[in-house]
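ok trying this again, last paste got cut off
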Amino acid sequence: MYALTGRQSLELSFAIILLCWADCSPSLQEDLAPLEVKFHSLDFRNVLHWKHPQKAVKNLTYFVQSKIYGDKEWTNSEDCQGIRLLECDLSQATSDPREWYYARVRSFSSEGFSSWVLSHRFYPQWETSFSPPQIKVTMTGRIISVQIKPPRTPLRGQNGSRIRVTKLQKLTFRIYLMHNDVEEEVYETDSCSKELVIEGLRPKTTYCLQAVSVTPRSGRKSLRSPSTCISTH
């Protein structure tokens, strides 16, 4: 068997240490990579969020790109190039709720660019949550009329007004009628109904109403709206 000299043994050990350092130590790109890149979506306002990397570096900025699932090319988010924020609104780039999307983020400092960090595959129609509808209550004798306004998306139509979420997603609206903080009745309307009429109420009684948006297919519910109270005559 061939025996290594002391010098050869030392050189071999040094070479192994160098290889291990190159293969096993975290690279600069990984140290500076953003953490926990994920979408948060409310009323189809699709915002990408992330956290600072593990390595603390001054003057760190971030660059964001997105694409439709299946596309080869990435698109720069114009408003999110060289930003210091930890979020980027991608509502316009992800405006079709029936498409799947990816986004990615990398950081930049005086030490260079980090590696890109990819988001999960994002499907707005399944992943967005909804706000409760706005309600306006009027009283006529012992009849309550409830005007229901669905939440709106950040997207705008041809007339410049913000598009209602019901243009992109079927919803139902649940109205809770309460007296003395006790739930008395629950009413449900579809997204086409803009008004709910409640009759047969007791005279000289104060009622409070709250509203909830419900996604019929999944059964997901929004938070309840603030209470709106009104008294019968």
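PB: full thing came through this time. Residues 134-231 form a domain with the Immunoglobulin-like fold (CATH 2.60.40.10).
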